[in-house]
Amino acid sequence: MKNFIKEFKEFISRGNVMDMAVGIIIGGAFTAIVSSLVDDIINPILGLFGGANLDKLKVSLLGEVTLNYGKFIAAIINFLLMALILFLIIKTLNKASSLRPKKEEEAVTKICPFCKSEIDIEATRCPHCTSQLGE
């Protein structure tokens, strides 16, 4: 049981799990902001042109049963705004990461001077032509 708890602590404290948790929390807060933007600013502005708040658009079907298509349109606008903002954030992050200087990768292979085959960097003899390699 002690080993299980230790493994669980290691899993939870990994960077990617913590990053994911932070992303979910920020995403929830961000969703609230975008929902407020759509409900409190965009819908009333669109209501000026349509004559009513977008959330209040509905069709009565039978008695008290209504089809609230205005709320559906607001949800679509909410989704499109969220997707646009996430696209812009990811595009900016990709641009910023491409501007960073790239690290030089350490060589793991070398070329045999005799047969020109690619071999391991630590090899002392070529596995293809069996030539002795000098340091």
Layout of helices and strands, plus pairs?
Layout: H1 2-12, H2 15-50, E1 59-62, E2 65-67, H3 69-99, E3 109-111, E4 118-120
Helix pairs in contact: 2-3
InterPro entries: Mechanosensitive_channel_CS, MS_channel, MSC/AndL, MscL_channel
Transmembrane segments: 20-38, 72-93
Keywords: Cell membrane, Ion channel, Ion transport, Membrane, Transmembrane, Transmembrane helix, Transport
Short structural description:
The chain crosses the membrane at residues 20-38, 72-93. With 135 residues, this protein is mostly helical. The protein is built from three helices and four strands.
Describe the fold and architecture.
This protein has 135 residues and is mainly α. The chain is built from 3 helices and 4 strands; from the N terminus they run ααββαββ. It has helices spanning 2-12, 15-50, 69-99, and strands at 59-62, 65-67, 109-111, 118-120. The chain has a two-stranded antiparallel sheet with strand order 1-2. Helix 2 crosses helix 3. The protein is elongated.
Cross-sheet strand order for the largest sheet:
1-2
At the fourth level of CATH, the homologous superfamily of the largest domain is Large-conductance mechanosensitive channel, MscL, domain 1
Shape: elongated
Please tell me the overall pLDDT: 82
Q: Provide a count of the helices.
A: 3
Helix content: 55-70%
- What is the CATH T-level topology of the largest domain? Non-ribosomal Peptide Synthetase Peptidyl Carrier Protein, Chain A
